[in-house]
Amino acid sequence: MSHNRAVITGIGVVSPFGLGRELFWDRVTGGVSATRGITEFEVQGGCRVAASIPADALDRCAAHDGRYAKVSRGSEEH
């Protein structure tokens, strides 16, 4: 039987509030909502709000191809 192991050496958060666990925790425990009107694309249908990660937070993440690579790399560093 094979045992896979993982070691967590830190925590970083990339969220709709921006980068960093302290910012995230302060906003969440302060009752702040991260939802806002959708502006990145034209909305069709009923929902007009989302909790999107701000573009400037993605820009501060390490330069990788694709949105998800940026998000995962950014969470390692903050």
Could you explain how this protein is built, in words?
- The protein is 33% helix and 10% strand.
- It is built from three helices and four strands; from the N terminus they run ββαββαα.
- It has helices at residues 21-29, 55-60, 67-77, and strands at 14-15, 18-19, 36-37, 49-50.
- The chain has a two-stranded antiparallel sheet.
- Strand 1 and strand 2 form a beta hairpin.
List the helices and strands and how they pair.
Layout: E1 14-15, E2 18-19, H1 21-29, E3 36-37, E4 49-50, H2 55-60, H3 67-77
Antiparallel strand pairs: 1-2, 3-4
Instruction: State Rg.
Output: 16 Å
Gap between N and C termini, in Å?
36 Å
The ordered string of helix (H) and strand (E) elements is EEHEEHH
pLDDT under 50 segments (min length 5)?
none
Shape descriptor reads extended
Q: Could you say which structural class the secondary elements and strand pairing correspond to? A: alpha+beta
Biggest β-sheet: count, sense, barrel?
2 strands, antiparallel
Total number of helical segments?
Answer: 3
Record field, number of beta strands: 4
Strand order of the largest sheet: 1-2
- Let me know the average pLDDT: 77
Instruction: Classify the beta-strand content into a percent band.
Output: 5-15%
What helical percentage do the residues reach? 25-40%
